[in-house]
Amino acid sequence: MEKSYIIKQISIFSENRPGRLAAVAGALKEAGINIFAFSIAEADGFGVVRALVDRPEDAHRRLTDLGFRVSFTDVIGVKMRDEPGGLSEIAGVLGDAAINIEYAYAYSGRDAAVLILRVDQVEDAIRKILGSGGELLKASTFH
Amino acid sequence: MRGHLTTRDVQSDMFWNTAMETISAADLEALQIKRLKWTLHQTQNVALYRSKLKEAGVAPGDIKTLEDAAKLPFTTKKELQAGYPFGLLAVPLRQIVRIHTTSGTTGKPTVVGYTRGDLESWSELIARNLVMVGLSDEDVFQNAVNYGLFTGGLGFHYGAEKVGMTVVPSATGNTQRQIEMIEDFGVTAIHCTPSYAMHLAEVAESTGAELATLKTGIFGAEPWSESMRSELEGRLGVTAFDSYGLSEMYGPGVAFECPERDGLHIWHDSYLVEIIDPATGEVLGPGERGELVITPLVKEAMPLLRYRTGDITMLMEEDCPCGRGRKIARITGRSDDMLVIRGINVFPSQIEHVLLGLPEVGEQFMVYIDRVKHLDEMTIEVEMSRAGFSGELQDLARIQKHVAGALHNALGLRTTVKLVEPGSLPRFEGKARRIVDRRGAL
Ligand SMILES: [Zn+2]
Questions:
Q1: Which of A2, B109, B191, B210: disulfide with A123, CB 3.0–4.6 Å?
Q2: Which CATH number among 3.30.70.1400, 1.10.3370.10, 2.60.120.10, 3.30.300.30 corresponds to the domain B339-437?
Q3: Angle, CA B81 vertex, CA B77 and CA B249 arms, to 5°
Q4: Are B396 and A68 inside 8 Å of each other by CB?
């Protein structure tokens, strides 16, 4: 049951130099792969590009063939209610259950803002969020 | 003096000259001092050494202990080249029975002369090496290196004959014929360069030749890695041994791996070995990497004082289970490649060695050296490997820290490590130019 909410994000190693992001996006576009959400995390000299796409396996193969280092990461997508306090509510639910949020990024979904979360115990997080009345996107929304 | 070198010991299987190969530390020291004094005496027949000693303010009689050798001046390849052709010979030409030359890739070649005694000593050392790796008069030995002015051909040839091996002087070229000889003559041991061995393996594989009799491979004259060793062993079906030598010291046979294959035995009764800091000339202790400096102890025609080989190695700290003397590590580079960073000597090969041991990064690298506020800063770019990427940023930071830590341990130096995308660093054919020193440019 929980598994149907686990979304496959692709993570791509990238140097912080001009054109790398465009190269990733261009390669996916060329393969006719849709990008729903995109985020970049940077550290000293390098970064990780994170993307939600409609065909993660194809994207993985395509980028690997081009010489990128790519891996899959399990994330979940929380539908944000259009009211104040939505984010702190989610954070509270997970915090109470001792589940760490490793990172989060937002994107605007079809009918509501969506928060993409990377947590350390993904199935627990899904149970807790659903149990507290939160709404999660099914993986099938994307893939 | 020759008598010491040529005593054949018949009791022991893996020793050619047990007495000399397992000589006690005290006896060795006494012998080395005696021979060093003789060598000094011999050098006085050469104008270059007379003037060098004078300049250093040292008289031959001042050298009474091995430690005193540090007072002697170094000899360099340049000085030998300047003496072209016969300026370095300590005996008249009528006592010279052969000459070889070093490859003259830079300037004039160096001429090396040999007396009859020198040839005798040289084959004695080669014989020790061959017997040390388990070869005997039962073996058929194919000597697939250049004969002629290059020392590798005739040097091994006479050493192998001395052991009583059946020698096939195949020299180089015509690989198909080389393979036929191995199969037709039942060759058990081959001597060649590692790159030629690789070529031989390829041709043998493509023609379906099994080389079933071959069991020992002796490879030298070029640096080769441990991964090349396993590849050669797998493809040729041999046990591979590293051979080190240089024409200035007769040629091959100066140092050689024993069956332990963990460092090379260097023949201390014939070569006085020092490891020095290439920048300062200071003598280093066992376990410290530096330039190999050799004073040959039995060379008659062309004696040398503290010859700077340019090769980087170290004296190994552990004794060898085989019972022979102190070993040197496999050569890891040339002193010309050395960098001095904040007063610390760094060899590109050390960096390479560290990276080879870390699966999360590739083996390609680039080094950039800058001077920032009067301090040297070294930045090393390494590629992420296939295995290394989990998808998490914090894991990348952890890898970066791990690589920097491993380099710090090996080099004694803090460096900045940059992770770059796989395949993005330049690949070099032949001599790699991985070092970009920007300290001079401003
Ligand atoms: Zn040994």
A1: A2
A2: 3.30.300.30
A3: 50
A4: no
